[in-house]
Design goal:
Elements (H helix, E strand, L loop, with lengths): L5 H13 L3 H10 L5 H13 L6 H11 L5 H13 L3 H9 L3 H18 L3 H9 L6 H13 L3 H9 L7 H13 L3 H14 L6 H14 L2 H14 L5 H14 L2 H10 L5 H13 L3 H10 L5 H13 L3 H10 L5 H13 L3 H13 L6 H14 L2 H13 L6 H13 L3 H10 L5 H13 L3 H13 L6 H14 L2 H15 L5 H13 L3 H9 L7 H13 L3 H14 L5 H12 L3 H13 L8 E6 L2 E6 L10 H15 L6 H10 L1
Antiparallel strand pairs: 1-2
Helix pairs in contact: 1-2, 1-3, 2-3, 3-4, 3-5, 4-5, 5-6, 5-7, 6-7, 7-8, 7-9, 8-9, 9-10, 9-11, 10-11, 11-12, 11-13, 13-14, 13-15, 15-16, 15-17, 16-17, 17-18, 17-19, 18-19, 19-20, 19-21, 20-21, 21-22, 21-23, 22-23, 23-24, 23-25, 24-25, 25-26, 25-27, 26-27, 27-28, 27-29, 28-29, ...
């Protein structure tokens, strides 16, 4: 048998290491009669690659210190080990001791990438600027680092002044950087420049970035253009590229195009199936989504969660429960989608019950789960539940999560605790537009119009851009406070100064504002000037104002328009009947009520609720013959029994009234 050479020893050592057999590799290393630098480097690299399973970094460093001779590979491997272990101080000390001839570019690139992955951009810049020799990896890493930290101008400056030829990663990093911050035009123009000037050529990675961005922001034309380019260039449609195109068309709602591409793919993975299932859900074609789900060759939690979301969007919460019960594994994302579905469908108590089940199953809620529960608390005005959720948020150390802070502001506002909402808002380090909108709306709905206006001014002064929701909140504040001139100024500024197109809800706010001020003719003129078709809410605002100011002509107009849009809406009949009754036109009143009965249109019963010892009790308004008995009086006997049942007390006057009724 021929004698083993150092090369064969080293090859065997590397084979052991690649298979995770570190003990065997070290035994072979110790038995070797001779060792070269390559052998030492192989053993050090083996420890570093497996340092989670063994105390690799310490063993690697001991070997490094014992090395009789080192080279650039030795230093690069050891620095990589310290970087992977997060021991940057030791990596820096070792880096500073490297002979200059071995430092650049490999060792420097390893340290730069380590800093960038750990979010240490400035340290990476220092190493980069100190390099004597840079290669395309050095430049590309820094361009990517600047982009991922949102410093696009510095990234572009570096990109334009690169001394090395750009590779696909460089172009892709810069293009993706623009796309991630919403600068689609800049990113797409750079893509076209790459097509014209780059010697690298367009590759699958960069077109995938374009497809993802086009799908995310709805750029259908550009997405189709790039798809055409891919076909023209004759790309091989591997599963990664095919999935990105399917996902793009799915987001566009072009489900037939997505399905055609899906059918032509020779290889499919779970992402392929999930993308198409999402497309059907997004297009509202839930039956076909379910059919595809049943046929899917691959399924994961995303498949199940997407389908549950689809049924939830259709209001089919019982079907959601059936699917959820069948799920093989439920992670926090699945639980969140499931619970959020109940909240979005107004089944708040069901959401609370399932959340408790989630806790019992020891699934840790994520910020979206907690935000959904806070939304349920807000919708029910269930402050005690909201307080419990807030305590849980503190316990889970999530109080500084921005989405949760915004949900807390909204919850406290809707529960009437405006001071608590404002305190939360003031504690937010960097409030975004959602934060401002939640607080402005909270002030508006609780009668703090001046405070809402002040906050709007603060928003603008800080450089935030108000959106459609902001203006709904601030116009609502003007409505509640009767600020007609201010309302007009803000409404007119929407398009002129802030490039926000007023929608039907904004017009409804203005009609309500003018109507409350008695300016009904002005409100009618505004409706007739609308560039879009008024919805029932706009006419409803005019109808309510017409009742308050006894304008029969406008009430008839508004009622007719509402019934054209919503034939089964009872409000026009009720309001016109009330107006006729008020002005003494009994025959017209009776005719209106008769017309309502003949059409079988019933007024939706009013609903209110109270919470007693964390239980929710609902009261539905009923038709009563005796006009002297009001809705609240009708409920009082039951409320009195609740107080006795739970051994609660009310003040003497309230108790006396209850006893008389019961």
């Amino acid at each position: 048998m021929p004698e083993k050479s150092i090369v064969s020893y080293t090859a065997m050592l590397s084979a052991y290491a690649n298979n995770g057999r570190i003990t065997n590799a070290r035994k072979l290393f110790d038995e070797m009669p001779q060792r070269t630098v390559a052998t030492w480097n192989a053993m050090i690299t083996a420890y570093i690659r497996n340092m989670i399973r063994v105390n690799g970094i310490e063993e690697a460093f001991r070997l490094f210190l014992r090395m009789p001779v080192r080279n650039a590979v030795s230093y690069t491997a050891m620095i990589m080990g310290f970087v992977k272990a997060g021991r940057f101080d030791e990596a820096e000390r070792l880096y500073e001791g490297i002979p200059l001839k071995w430092r650049d570019p490999s060792c420097s690139n390893v340290l730069i990438n380590g800093y960038l992955k750990s979010g240490k951009l400035e340290e990476a810049v220092t190493v980069f600027e100190g390099m004597v020799e840079k290669n395309v990896v050095s430049w590309s890493s820094m361009v990517d680092g600047y982009c991922k930290n949102g410093r696009l101008s510095e990234a572009r400056k570096l990109f334009d002044t690169m001394e090395e030829s750009k590779n696909e990663f460089t172009w892709c990093s810069m293009i993706d950087g623009y796309m991630k911050v919403g600068r689609f035009e800049d990113g797409f123009q750079l893509f076209l420049q790459m097509r014209r000037e780059s010697q690298v050529g367009i590759g699958p990675t960069v077109v995938t970035v374009i497809f993802e961005s086009c799908g995310r922001i709805g750029r259908y034309k550009e997405g189709c253009q790039v798809h055409g380019l891919v076909l023209h260039l004759g790309f091989d449609f591997d599963v990664f590229l095919g999935n990105s195109i399917i996902a793009m068309y799915a987001r566009f709602g072009c489900i037939d195009e997505a399905r055609n591409l899906f059918n032509t793919m020779s290889e499919k993975d779970v992402v392929s199936w999930n993308s198409l299932i999402y497309g059907y859900v997004h297009a509202g074609r839930i039956e076909q989504a379910y059919e595809l789900f049943e046929k899917a060759e691959f399924k994961d939690s995303v498949s199940w969660t997407t389908l549950i979301t689809g049924f939830s969007n259709k209001g089919l919460t019982k079907k959601c429960i059936d699917l959820f019960d069948k799920m093989p594994e439920r992670d926090d994302v699945a639980w969140t989608a499931f619970i959020s579905g109940f909240v979005s469908n107004g089944e708040h108590e069901e959401a609370i019950c399932w959340f408790l089940q989630m806790i019992r199953n020891e699934i840790r809620p994520n910020p979206l789960t907690l935000s959904s529960l806070l939304s349920a608390s807000a919708s029910l005005a269930f402050l005690s539940l909201g307080l419990q959720m807030h305590a849980l948020i503190f316990k889970m150390d999530m109080e500084n999560d921005l989405s949760i802070q915004n949900s807390l502001v909204s919850m406290y506002s809707k529960c009437g605790s405006v001071n608590d909402a404002h305190n939360i808002f003031k504690s937010i380090a960097k409030p975004n537009i959602v934060s401002f909108n939640s607080m402005i709306t909270g002030f508006a709905h609780n009668g703090f119009g001046e405070e809402a206006l002040d906050l709007f001014k603060q928003l603008v002064s800080e450089g935030q851009e108000p959106n459609a929701v902001t203006f709904l909140g601030i116009l609502s504040a003007c409505t509640h406070m009767g600020f007609v001139e201010m309302g007009w100024q803000l409404f007119r500024s929407m398009k002129t100064f802030f490039n926000v197109e007023p929608g039907p809800d904004h017009y409804a706010c203005m009609v309500d504002l003018l109507g409350r001020a008695g300016l009904l003719d002005e409100a009618t003129k505004l409706i007739k000037s609308m560039p879009i078709e008024p919805h029932s809410g706009v006419w409803g605002a005019l109808l309510g104002a017409s009742r308050n100011h006894t304008r029969v002509d406008l009430a008839r107009l508004a009622a007719r328009k509402i019934l054209e849009l919503e034939p089964n809406n009872a409000a026009p009949y009720v309001v016109l009947s009330d107006i006729y009754s008020f002005i003494g036109k009994r025959r017209d009143e009776e005719q209106m009520r008769l017309s309502q009965r003949l059409r079988g249109i019933k007024k939706s019963p009013g609903c209110s609720w109270i919470t007693v010892q964390d239980k929710i009790f609902y009261f539905l308004d009923r038709f009563v013959k005796h006009a002297s008995i009001t809705h609240s009086d009708d409920c009082l006997p039951f409320v009195y029994k609740l107080l006795l049942l739970f051994n609660l007390t009310a003040d003497d006057e309230v108790m006396d009234q209850m006893k008389r009724i019961t």
